[in-house]
Specification:
By secondary structure, the protein is of the alpha/beta class. It folds into two domains: about 5-255, Spore Coat Polysaccharide Biosynthesis Protein SpsA, Chain A (Alpha-Beta Complex), CATH 3.90.550; about 285-390, Hexapeptide repeat proteins (UDP N-Acetylglucosamine Acyltransferase, domain 1, 3 Solenoid). About 20% of the residues lie in helices and about 30% in strands. The protein contains eight helices and 33 strands. The strands form eight sheets. The chain has a seven-stranded mixed β-sheet with strand order 5-4-1-8-13-10-14, sandwiched between helices. A six-stranded parallel β-sheet has the order 16-19-22-25-28-31, with no helix packed on it. The radius of gyration is 22 Å and the shape is elongated.
Length: about 400
């Protein structure tokens, strides 16, 4: 039996407002994990390794930060003559502008292109999450059950579930769906991976648009998924293993912390399922005499002369002699000068922390953030929870 024609839509258009200054000049899917793996690498790698060759990226907020990295799909072998990788943006036409007002609206805005491709199944993935998943298993289960939608689910603490779509499951059937409820009844939530019967998806969006208006389609959880669940052909597929939504500063920091220690919660060294993407052309990291590094991850080109503990350093980061970095995430080309201290902070690309400055504080308080190209002057103190804007 031939494999179904599958289209994957990767949603990378959110503004990332909960990330504050970290997404002022870049999209959230461009934020790096493990030093040099942008979040977008995870859904694209999952698609490619699952044998999906038609992958479209729907972008909106700061898309320029993705363009060079995705390189027309080349790092994932998706740059094909027919089909393959495609990047979709908001556009204007005879019926006006189509600025995306939520992910369901974004797909409806591009309905003609999807219909022209005529995929049997459409897989929709968010670009804000870290996990590995063979999508072939989900597609096969979806087809076997003749589902209208299959929702990939995972488990979180009940007190965290209100950030997500909460799914009520009976066997494999989805019998209830609540979008970001104030009082979630369960910790079973959507992992933001959905498999749709394409005809049902497009027809349902058209029906809802006619009834409520296109601009009211919003996100999947607002109208589309409750409608399909009520129709009785919605099923769940449990995702086993690690999954984390990196959509807030705290969860982004924690996702990087999950990489550290003797027994990290997240491992990215699977030979059978590598996270593919475009990497910096830099030599190996260097730890120089007198430096101290423990429970940390150093990317290519990093140079450490000072002290680094429980931290993740991006490509080209420099930690000068006498500087100390603890419980922090430093993106590419950050420089921490001598005598400076950075604790429990996230520093975006090309930040410079001046000599003797103090950024953040130990403990379990709020994280301190510095935007792309930001500068902390020598001797300055940036308290826990503060934000420093990046360069204009």
């Amino acid at each position: 039996m031939p494999r179904p024609h599958v289209l994957a839509l990767v949603l990378a258009g959110g503004a990332g407002s909960r990330m504050g200054v970290l997404t002022d000049t870049r999209s959230k899917p461009s934020l790096p994990v493990a030093g040099e793996l942008p979040l977008i690498d995870f859904p694209l790698s999952n698609c490619r390794l699952s044998g999906i060759s038609d992958v479209w990226l729907i972008a909106q907020h700061n898309p320029h930060s993705l363009l060079d990295h995705v390189a027309n799909g080349r790092p994932w072998d998706l740059d094909r003559t027919r089909g393959g990788f495609r990047m979709l943006h908001p556009f204007s036409g005879e019926d006006g502008e189509r600025w995306h007002e939520g992910n369901a609206h974004a797909i409806h805005a591009h309905r003609e292109f999807i219909a022209d491709l005529r995929p049997d199944v459409t897989v929709v993935l968010s670009a804000d999450h870290v996990y590995t998943l063979d999508l072939r298993d989900v597609v096969d289960a979806h087809l076997d059950r003749e589902a209208s939608v299959t929702i990939v689910t995972t488990e979180v603490a009940v007190d965290e579930a209100s950030r997500h779509g909460v799914v009520e499951v009976d066997g494999s059937s989805v019998v209830g769906f609540s979008y970001k409820p104030d009082d979630p009844a369960t910790g079973t939530v959507s992992a933001e991976v959905f498999v749709y019967d394409t005809a049902v998806l497009l027809d349902t969006l058209a029906e809802l648009a006619d009834k409520h208006g296109e601009d009211e389609l919003g996100d999947f959880g607002e109208r589309l998924l409750p409608h399909l669940v009520d129709g009785g052909r919605a099923h769940a597929h449990r995702l086993e293993g690690y999954w984390r939504d990196l959509g807030t500063v705290e969860s982004y920091w924690q996702g990087n912390q999950d990489l550290l220690g003797d027994e990290p919660r997240l491992r990215l060294d699977r030979r059978d399922w590598p996270i593919m993407g475009r990497r910096a052309d830099l030599p190996a990291a260097r730890v120089l005499r007198g430096a101290e590094v423990s429970d940390s991850m150093l990317s290519a080109g990093a140079v450490v002369r000072g002290s680094v503990e429980r931290s993740v350093l991006g490509p080209g980061v420099v930690i000068e002699r006498g500087a100390r970095v603890v419980d922090s995430v430093l993106m590419e080309e950050v420089v921490v000068e001598g005598g400076a201290r950075v604790e429990r902070s996230v520093l975006a690309a090309r930040t410079r922390v001046g000599e003797g400055a103090v950024v953040g504080a130990p403990g379990d308080g709020e994280l301190t953030r510095v935007g792309d190209g930001g500068t902390v002057e020598a001797g300055a103190e940036v308290p826990a929870g503060a934000e420093v804007a990046g360069a204009v």
